[in-house]
Amino acid sequence: MHRNNRNSVLRRWPLVGREAELSGFDEVLPEARSAGFLIFGPAGVGKSRLAEECLDRAIALGYRAGRAVATAAAASVPLGAIAHLLPDGADLSDPVSGFADVAALLSRPGAARPRTVILVDDIHLLDATSAMLLRQLMDAGVIFLLGTVRSQEGPAPAVSALGHGDAVRQVDLAGFDRDQVTMALERVLEGPVGRSAVNHLLATSGGNPLYLRELVVGAVDAGVLTCDGEIWDMTADRLPGTRRLTDLIRSRLAVAPDAGRQVLQVLSLYEPLSLAHLEQDAEPEVLDQLERAGLIVVVQEERRTAVRLAHPLHGEVLRADMTTRCRRDTLLRQVRLLKRTGARRREDAIHLAAFELAATGTADPGLLVRAAVLAAHAHAYPRALDLLRAIPQDHRGFRIELLLGKTLYEAGDFRQAEDVLSRADAMAATEQEVLSALAVRTQNLMWGLGTSYVKVLDVIESARCRVTDPLGRRVLLVNEAAAALTVGEVRHSLALSADLEREGTHAPDAQTWLWAAMTRSMALAVTGRGEEAEGWIRRAIAFSSTAGETRATVTQEVAHQAVLALALAESGRLAEAREVGERAFAGLPDATATADRRMLAFYLARGAWAAGHPAQARRWFAEVARSSRPHTPVMLSMALAGLAASAALQGDADAAEAALAERGRLPATGFFPEERLGEAWLHVALGELTRARAVLTVAAQEAFERGETASEGILLTDLVRLGEAGEAAGRLAEIAAECTGLLHRSRADLAAAWAAHDPDGLLAAADALEAMGADLPAAEAASTAAAILRGAGQPRRANAASVRAEALAARCEGARTPALMAREAAVRLTGREREIALLASRSMLSKDIAAALTISVRTVDNHLQRIYQKLGITTRKELTERLLR
To answer: Model-level pTM?
Structure first.
């Protein structure tokens, strides 16, 4: 468990994302033709921090150093900012002779590094005399100037005087992008950080490094940013920040004129607003001033010009500083402006309802309904929820309750969604209303709450009693197919959707067809038919992109991309699957833990595991586990099993045991054979290969009985990797014959070559596996081929295969498997000897090894003697070192 507090975060805050600028400084400093290095950028991007790092580097190289800060007050006095840097005895009454005196006193004839590095912060505020003197000293090679310039201040004479010519390198600093935010957070917090937390901090800070630091300090201090032992994530939507951050923002906002302050207050209460609306209440010159000062941004959005605050945190401070009366008067003024113009634009209904509601606590019910529908259609779910909840109870019919329940589901509030949807179901008066409520409710029960199959079937049966129309009953079958899939009834799910092809894309209705197509795609992927699965989900994606009511919601779009990633992975296109999944995840900036977001993260984790990248897999599984607690036990169970497997593959048995222990405390849910991977690989990490193989064998048999061919193939392939190729090769060959695709063929070829001790076949399998992105199995195949070739007296080919194995293993993030850890010993040791060697390397006593393997102590000691003789060693310590090497 990582523990952090405010002081530790402040102490460890790194200089990240500025490697290119530091490298540029390192290049120009020693050059005789270079005289300066100026760092441009807006406030808060870390100009001063970077400049201090550059100065420290110069000092470390033996340069003398001086620091100065230019200010508006110091600029009123010639040389006021740099007077303390001038040597004693310099007479500046005569500029020409005075300069010569300064240059002579600053120089050290014969010194290896004669120049002095002078750092001037806010160099644009320097007075003209200081700028002229520094320029002369730069031209004479006496000093190297290091300066920061606030780019928002516009052109300044001092900058023009100091920064002209090729001798001065100029760099522009921008805010952090997502990768730089992630890097900074993970260095400071000393562990992985959830994607949602990164997105939240990036959006709130606007990429401003100074704001980011203060937000992290405040969040850690307040317990809002916490670690569950695996990953850091947010425990609340609001970031508290710090007093220093608030003061910084207040000083930034202080440059706004009084009339501009009113514009900023309006935007803090509701943004974006159209430029045309704001121009009704503010002069164009005021808006121009705010834009030039960097306090608002004006952007073109389709056919309208929209205005936003320049930074999300500006709104937080503006709202906090507004009195209740000021807030109310500001909102009511906007209401009057909208009514005066007739509120003709589509978004005006949302604005009008939101302004009235925030100002008075109520609004016209019809206006609230219209605004809520528009907000939900625009995926503005928090806004839609505020509007829907404000609708008086006597105006809430079935339509409003259904929209509220659906919006709650989209926003990730699954428990409240079930309460509302059950009310909507009870209010349904027509068969169409029954079906509409059922569709959303079953999705929420299955993917949101992880409700049992029996309860979902009860809900479907209740609806079946009220639906007589044949098309309506078809909708019920689609719901049942989806429910069956979630509990592993794959064959039943496929049977229920068997007539989907005959129906086309317009029966019984578009949304039902989309859901059925996605369900069928997932079922096909689970049964190992990745190419067919890809075809169905691509049809669904193409159909959902059409305009009108069939357009997919945000959660449907995420779900479609998640299923596409699954289908691609089951087709053997692991790299493409990862690209699709990560692109979809990157398009979700909000921190809402929706069911479809978890599903997408889970398939990304599963794909990373298949590729043999345990660190990536562990991180994704940890994200799923964190967002699934405590309300989604099915997904949590699967994520913890994957987390255990990934940690064990890295050799972290403690973390694997902790994950499995938590999983063991969960309420009984549906079981998926693939979940046994966590248990199996923990046994491997502990050196208990016999137990690991037994677990995998039982799980593979259950997957076979349930028709989950994809899981069966994974489990059998792991049996091959743990030395049971002979047992698994036959069934993998059958799967390859039943299911098309490179993935199944490659697994079957790997098993056959491993069982036959065929080095050429293993190397060919390594080629195929590497091509599809399965780096770890490919590394193990090449490693095993190297061992066989070495034993056959072919050292040249063995060395080539070993080099290949090491290159592949280097991509596998520290994965530790028997095939990689014991490749030297694999040439000489039998399977039983290798198992005993692994257990002995963990400092287990002979009696404990005997008990674990159900053999006698004497047998264990005899095996150990032969192991020592074969490896040319004499102690267990040497054995451990040999196996690790």
So the answer is: 0.77
